[in-house]
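Aggregate trends can hide what the representation actually does to any particular protein. The sequence in question and its structure tokens are set out directly beneath this paragraph.
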Amino acid sequence: MSACAQTIYIVRHGERLDFVDRLWRRSNPERSYDPPLTDKGLLQAKAVGQEIKSKTLDIKHVISSPFSRCLQTAMCISETLGSQSVGISNGLCEVMNPNCYVTRRVILPTPQLESLNVTLDDSGIDCPLPHFPEQFRDAFHRYASAFEAAADKHWPHNLVLVTHGYGVQRALNLGLSTVAAFQVEYCGYVVLERESKRPQWKLGESVGAS
């Protein structure tokens, strides 16, 4: 990747437990929309942290969606990068739509941070949760705004933003200036770069997003 004034990594969370254990949602009806990572997902998160570390040592903050699977992923990445905490941005959250297994209004932050071994810092962005049900076009606009808000707050520092599959799709759309749909693997990511504070983002790299 070329040297740029600011680089952000937009990363999808690791493997979610409810896609492996199909009984998990039934056993956790109050948190059915918010599964944690599997053991494999934790390993994926650590691996992507190592991959990012090998490419740049200059990550200032890791900021996450408030969903448990993202916070766990973010914390693994943060620890791998030598930090011990993460920020939260509600703008990075899952699309509030039944097609994303969100079947009712979500009350967040609900994650049990202590049980997830997550420590928060003040690097996040204070913004409200989207309303349920949320349309996908509104979610894509929200993701773009969340990326820009985090990048502007911490300009010109480099960041890792941990979000959901549709968030990484949106990042790839921004980098390619298209509205095409893409598939995003667990812990797949897109790298966006910019030379100054208000230009169009450029795609630096995409891994596991095609």
